[in-house]
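Attaching the record inline, Q. Sequence:
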Amino acid sequence: MPVPGWATPEGTVAYARRFQGRAAEGHFRSCQGLLLSSIGLGTYLGSPDAETDAAYTAAVERAYTVGCNVFDTAINYRFQRSERSIGAALHQMAREEVLVCTKAGFLTTDGEMPADPRAYFKSEYLDRGVLPREEICGGMHCIAPEYLADQIERSLRNLDLETIDVFYVHNPETQPPEVGHEEFHRRLRRAFEMLEGKVAEGKIRFYGTATWNGYHRPPSARDHLGLEAIAGLAREVGGDGHHFRFLQLPHNLQMPEAFAATLQPLNGNTTTLLKAAADLGITVVASATLMQAGLAHGLPPVIGESLPGLQNDAERAIQFTRSTPGLAVALVGMSQVAHVEANLRLAEVPPASERQFLQLFTRS
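Structure, as predicted:
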């Protein structure tokens, strides 16, 4: 039977209180009325097999016990298996204490890659009328309302939930290079209309966009995403009380543009993504905190000098992201309990001060 409920202010406060005396000040942050851990667990990588399924479930369960209440996945991660791994773990938790986030936009198969993927997509989606052929971009991406609605229902079954806390439209910057920004905004507006309806139905609580490079690109680029314009679409369909309240994008030592680059139009000027999001009331979650372990070793000494008191480069990379002013949660891929034990040690460490953080941008 699906787990009822969603993350609540009361539930997340109660969760954070259990870690008083263990979690450092600043580990839990107030976001959209909730208290969320500064480090979240991501589920992108791993083989689509039963061993990895079980390892992710164990990692999620352990993370919940050591101070992590943000769990992130997507329907296409490991062919829907990552969602199911999280779903298996959620039965061991108080539902109102945890934020569960997923995404859709890319076409995915179920459990494994079939021998004939074309035949699978034809029978599963095209023949059923939930995947408009004319709205597929890049051969594998669609944000048509009927397709995203179908994916939400599948995600709810995979997660064994009645309500998803945050649903992201996945990598929407895939669309404008093929269809242009005017058509892209029309498509995204239709998607937002459907998502506001899903909020009203109780299927989701919030929605947003999870991107790779769209918000990092200059306004002249074909794949640029303008947060002010996209938030405006949500306001058109949902009013000032719209539910476009979360944004996910890569932010790390190698990709600091969300904090450092003024690429976002806002009120006739340009500003950083994090400042634009704050002005628009949108919570920012970082993905790729370790760049798939690429930042877990070999960092220059200046990083350790600016972020002292940490044990290794993985901790320094996580500390950079979670300490970025204006950023709420740093997602870290953790497919094993050992990863959780290593990375969640930082729950006991305060985030870097703004002075320490800014040193990284002034020291050569």
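The chain has one domain: 9-245+261-281+336-344. Residues 176-201 form the longest helix (26 residues).

More tomorrow.
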